[in-house]
Write a structure and sequence with these properties.
18 helices
Length: 445
């Protein structure tokens, strides 16, 4: 006996409701550019020209410890041919000249410490003034923000006061916020702490004449409570929901997280299995939501072992080995993150910029030909399916392939022309940043 029409109508209605809800909850990867890193620096040290200065220091480190592609490739243990090392080195050097820092976070937490209120108040105003100067002079990184203290019982008043003073001072100095501005909330342990930040930001926006929801935030995932809730279930979606649409990113904090699990300092590393577990939970919880994921930092810094105006030959060798070892570790950590689809991480020192970009660029360049062939074949088959009237419902896979190239272009690993050459897409199609739009246009044509 056939299914009654009324039952079919009910199924259709409910299926449409489910699809609508899923599309709202899981819109897919954000089409916006995501920075490949966030550089953290004490807010009291920030200057309008900090990004450029960090690039200069990074170049000086290269000149001293790896002045050419061969030396640098060997130092970091870069896989592949000498040609790849040369290509990566040249593009990395160009990046350090043009856009050495993609995202900078003025830090009022771990990189700043606890200071008297009067002193922190002064740094809120002076840091805001420097950001305003950077806005006028065009010297800021493309992405920028401020990390406040946790909204804990001990620090919440200072945290909110810093947030208020910094943003109010910046609005007074500059008349607005820089592009891609974000507030970072560390050590979240309960969704209500995120809600409190949203309440504070709503009040701040109202008093400053900004539209509600203007100020976005990102969350630090560095406590066990933010990975699994008290009911034993993954809790990050609740934290994001508590942000009332403001949360755009979740950043993993390696060292606070491992310390909270009583892992000893010697084993608090980016690649510890406990970190992989937490990152997997974070990734699964937020997959398809459009929330950006970021990995943590390598805290072994590429700095000289010996300091002073003069060095013995043995001391120079010690310095070279120390910097190269730290570079190699950072390179490996970044590649580990990338292989797990964490396309952003933290950097703590200017000499980590070369290895950040080298790891990212080598990752994309190694996969360029294979991904290009896959995307070209995928677009062809998908377009053919739509042309003959079939429904092609695997757009997420196509968008994922397209995102590989968009990320590579955004960070400077490849050029648009190189992507066009390998994928068969036109420059106009590439610039839509949307697999669905590409298929729709081809179907219309």
């Amino acid at each position: 006996m056939p299914i009654p029409d009324s039952t079919l109508e009910e199924i259709a209605h409910r299926a449409e409701d489910i699809a609508s809800r899923l599309n709202a909850e899981f819109p897919g990867a954000s089409p916006r550019r995501q920075p490949v890193h966030t550089v953290y620096g004490g807010a009291h040290l920030f200057k309008a020209g900090t990004a450029g200065r960090l690039g200069q220091l990074a170049q000086a480190s290269l000149d001293r410890y790896a002045p050419d592609a061969d030396a640098f490739g060997k130092a970091v243990g870069m896989p592949g041919s000498a040609g790849l090392a040369g290509q990566v080195f040249d593009r990395m050097r160009a990046k350090l000249l043009t856009e050495p820092v993609e995202d900078f976070r003025l830090d009022f937490e771990d990189g700043y410490g606890n200071r008297p209120d009067q002193e922190e108040d002064g740094h809120c105003r002076s840091a805001a003034a420097e950001v305003a100067t950077g806005m006028r002079e065009g010297g800021l990184s493309p992405f920028i923000g401020v990390r406040i203290k946790p909204l804990s019982g001990e620090l919440h008043r200072r945290s909110i006061r810093t947030l208020d003073l910094f943003i109010s001072s910046l609005m007074e100095e500059a008349g607005g916020l820089p592009d891609n501005f974000v507030v970072t909330l560390p050590k979240v342990q309960d969704p209500e702490q995120v809600d409190l930040l949203a309440v504070a930001l709503t009040g701040l926006e109202g008093s400053l004449g900004m539209a509600e929801g203007t100020i976005q935030c990102e969350l630090m995932v560095e406590t066990p409570q933010s990975v699994l809730g008290p009911d034993g279930l993954a809790g990050l979606r609740r934290y994001v929901s508590a942000g009332r649409g403001r949360v755009i990113g979740a950043h993993f904090g390696t060292y606070d997280y491992t310390a909270s699990l009583d892992i000893t300092a010697a084993h608090q590393t980016m690649t510890h299995p406990a970190c992989d577990f937490a990152r997997d939970i974070q990734q699964v919880s937020l997959a398809g939501t459009g929330i950006w994921l970021s990995d943590g930092a390598t805290n072994v810094l590429p700095v000289a072992v010996h300091n002073g105006p003069d060095f013995t030959e043995a001391q120079q060798e010690d310095n070279l080995r120390g910097v190269h070892a730290a570079w190699r570790l950072h390179f490996q950590h970044v590649r580990h993150s990338l292989s797990h689809a964490y396309y952003q991480g933290w950097d703590l020192h200017p000499a980590q910029l070369p290895t950040r970009y080298a790891a990212v660029y080598s990752f994309f360049l190694e996969g360029l030909d294979q991904a290009g062939e896959r995307l070209s074949n995928f677009v062809g088959k998908a377009a053919q399916a739509t042309l003959v009237g079939e429904v092609f419902d695997d757009a997420a896979t196509g968008q994922g392939l397209l995102n590989f190239f968009l990320r590579a272009i955004n960070c400077g690993a490849v050029t648009e022309d190189e992507v066009v050459d390998r994928t068969g897409l036109s420059l106009g199609e590439l610039q839509t940043r949307s697999f669905v739009k590409i298929l729709s246009a081809r179907r219309s044509a």
